[in-house]
Write a structure and sequence with these properties.
The chain is of the alpha+beta class. The protein has 9 helices and 25 strands.
Length: 496
C-alpha cells in the first residue's frame, strides 16, 4: 500500500521532533530559543546533565522536580513566580541516588518545591551543590500549578498511554522513534496543565537503561528520556501516572514520585507485598492508586496491573491466556475487602455531585486480539458508574478506540498509541460499543478500523494522545495523532 505520508514529510517530521528540543516555552507563553553550547544532545545544557529536569506529583502547593547528572551532589532548585525565578531555593537533604544507565553510573536527583499557590505560573532552574547551573544557556522553563478544587476556570490536560519504545515503523534498531517523538512534540505545544499517563511508560519492561538519558542510544535504550522524547514537554508539564503490566519493578516508583498526591487522598504509592493468588508467586509489586480534585473534577488514577510472568494457574476464563494477567489483577485489587477496592468505594462516596474521570491500564473494552477487553473489571465498572464517574481512560491495547456509554457502561477510551508498537483493531470483529477505532499491522503493512473510523493509510495516524478540555460541565476530548491532526473529536456533558 502506498503510504500517504511521503519520505520528505518523514524527514521534516524527524527534523521537527529534533528541533523541538531546542525551543522551550516559558509556562504557557512565548517560545524561546537558545544558542547551542556544551551538551551535544541538548545543546546549551551543562555536560553534567544526563536527564533533563522533569516534573511530577503536582499539587496546588508543591511539585517534584527530578533530573540526573554525571556527578553526585545535593541538587537544588531555584524557583519563583514569573519575573523573579530565583526568589526561593529548595535543596535536597540527600546526595543524588546512584543509578546505572547502560554501563554508565549516573545520579538521580529529586527535590520537592513547596510554598506554591494554585493557578500560578512559576519558573525554575536546577543546580549542583557547588552552584553549577545545569541548564547552562537553556532558557528558564516554567510550569503552572493546578487550579483549586472548586475552580470553574476552563483548563486542558492530556492523556497518554503505552510509550517508551525504540521501535520505529515496526523495526527496532535503536534509531529515533519518529512517531513517539512527534507525539511528545505535540504534547509540548498542547497547552496542557498536566499529562495523565495510563501505564507502561517503557517497553518491553522497566529499567533505568530503558528510561535512559540524553546521551546513550540503541535498542531499548533511552526510549523515554532521550532528547527527542519526554525532554521536550517534561521540563514544564507535570506527568501524573499509574503503573502498567510492563512497569512492575521498583524502578517505576524511583523515577515517578507521586507521594504527595497519594498521601493527600489516602491512596498508595509504594511497593506492596502480595500473597499467592491462583498459584502465582508471592511477590512485591509497585502499587499506585490515588485521587485529586482540580477545576471541579475528581481524578482517579487506579492500579489495574499484574506482571506478565506471574500468572500461576490463572486461565483468563473465556477470554483465554491473554487475560490471565487480568484475572490475577482482579484477585489482587478488585475483590470486596481488597485495599484498593475499599479505598475507591469510600472515596467515590465522599465526593458526590462532581464530575469524575477514572484512568487505569487494563481496558474495559478493547477490540485488540492480543490485548482484549478486561471482563474481570465488570464489577469495578459498575462501582465507578454508581459512584458518578463520567469518563474512563485506559491503555494496554496499542491502538485508539472510543466506546459508547449505555446500560451498565461508562463512555471509555483506549489510548495506547503513545509510542509503543501499535496493533490492529477488530481482527476478531468490531464490538457494537466500538464507535471509533483505528489500528495498524506492521506484518500486513496496512491499517484497520472499527465503527465510524476510516482505515488509516499510515501508521503515523494511529500514534496519538488525547487533549481534554474541561469548561464547566462541558468536556471535549480531541484525539491528536503524531502528525498533529485531530480526529473523532467528542464533547460530553458531565455530572453537574
Amino acid at each position: 500500500m502506498t503510504r500517504r505520508v511521503s519520505s520528505e514529510h518523514r524527514r521534516l517530521s524527524l527534523r521537527h521532533a529534533r528541533s523541538a528540543v531546542f525551543a522551550l516555552v516559558l509556562g504557557a507563553g512565548t517560545a524561546l530559543s537558545f544558542t547551542p553550547a556544551a551538551h551535544a544532545d541538548l545543546p546549551g545544557a551543562d555536560a553534567q546533565l544526563t536527564r533533563a529536569p522533569y516534573l511530577s506529583d503536582s499539587t496546588t502547593t508543591s511539585v517534584q522536580v527530578s533530573w540526573a547528572t554525571t556527578t553526585q551532589s545535593r541538587g537544588s532548585v531555584r524557583y519563583g513566580p514569573l519575573g523573579n525565578c530565583a526568589a526561593n531555593t529548595a535543596t535536597s537533604s540527600t546526595l543524588g541516588s546512584p543509578i546505572t544507565v547502560g554501563s554508565t553510573r549516573e545520579y538521580a536527583n529529586s527535590v520537592t518545591v513547596t510554598g506554591l499557590t494554585a493557578s500560578t505560573t512559576y519558573c525554575y532552574r536546577v543546580y549542583t551543590a557547588s552552584g553549577t547551573d545545569l541548564l547552562g544557556t537553556l532558557p528558564t522553563p516554567g510550569f503552572t500549578t493546578p487550579d483549586p478544587a472548586d475552580s470553574t476556570t476552563s483548563f486542558t490536560f492530556d492523556v497518554l498511554g503505552d510509550t517508551g519504545e525504540t521501535t520505529n515503523s515496526g523495526v527496532d534498531d535503536g534509531s529515533l522513534n519518529v512517531n513517539q517523538a512527534n507525539v511528545m512534540s505535540q504534547i509540548a505545544a498542547s497547552g496542557a496543565r498536566f499529562v495523565v499517563q495510563t501505564g507502561d511508560n517503557t517497553h518491553p519492561g522497566t529499567s533505568q537503561t530503558q528510561y535512559g538519558d540524553l546521551d546513550q542510544t540503541g535498542v531499548d535504550i533511552s526510549s523515554w528520556f532521550g532528547p527527542s522524547y519526554w525532554t521536550q514537554p517534561g521540563m514544564r508539564i507535570p506527568l501524573l501516572g499509574t503503573v502498567g503490566n510492563h512497569s512492575m519493578t521498583s524502578t517505576y516508583l524511583q523515577v515517578w514520585k507521586q507521594s504527595a498526591l497519594a498521601a493527600a487522598s489516602g491512596g498508595v504509592w509504594a511497593s506492596v507485598d502480595y500473597p499467592s493468588y491462583l498459584g502465582s508467586n508471592p511477590i512485591s509489586y509497585p502499587t499506585t492508586y490515588y485521587a485529586f480534585t482540580t477545576g471541579g473534577v475528581r481524578f482517579y488514577l487506579l492500579d489495574t496491573a499484574w506482571g506478565n510472568s506471574n500468572t500461576g494457574a490463572a486461565t483468563g476464563g473465556s477470554c483465554g491466556s491473554h487475560c490471565a494477567i487480568y484475572e490475577q489483577d482482579a484477585h489482587a485489587h478488585w475483590q470486596d475487602g481488597s485495599a484498593e477496592y475499599e479505598w475507591l468505594k469510600a472515596d467515590l462516596t465522599a465526593h458526590p455531585g462532581v464530575p469524575k474521570f477514572a484512568f487505569f491500564h487494563f481496558p474495559l473494552r478493547s477490540d485488540s486480539a492480543s490485548e482484549p477487553s478486561d471482563t474481570f473489571l465488570t464489577g469495578v465498572e459498575q462501582t465507578l458508574l454508581d459512584g458518578g464517574v463520567d469518563l474512563v481512560f485506559n491503555g494496554h491495547s496499542h491502538l485508539y478506540q472510543r466506546n459508547t456509554a449505555g446500560a451498565g457502561r461508562i463512555a471509555s477510551y483506549v489510548t495506547g498509541g503513545g509510542g509503543a508498537d501499535v496493533h490492529s483493531v477488530g481482527e476478531n470483529g468490531c464490538s457494537a460499543t466500538d464507535a471509533y477505532g483505528i489500528g495498524w499491522s506492521y506484518g500486513r503493512n496496512r491499517g484497520s478500523a472499527c465503527g465510524a473510523a476510516s482505515v488509516p493509510t499510515d501508521d503515523a495516524q494511529v500514534y496519538h494522545f488525547l487533549k481534554v478540555t474541561v469548561n464547566g460541565t462541558s468536556v471535549t476530548v480531541a484525539p491528536t495523532n503524531s502528525l498533529g491532526q485531530t480526529f473523532d473529536v467528542q464533547t460530553y456533558t458531565v455530572t453537574p
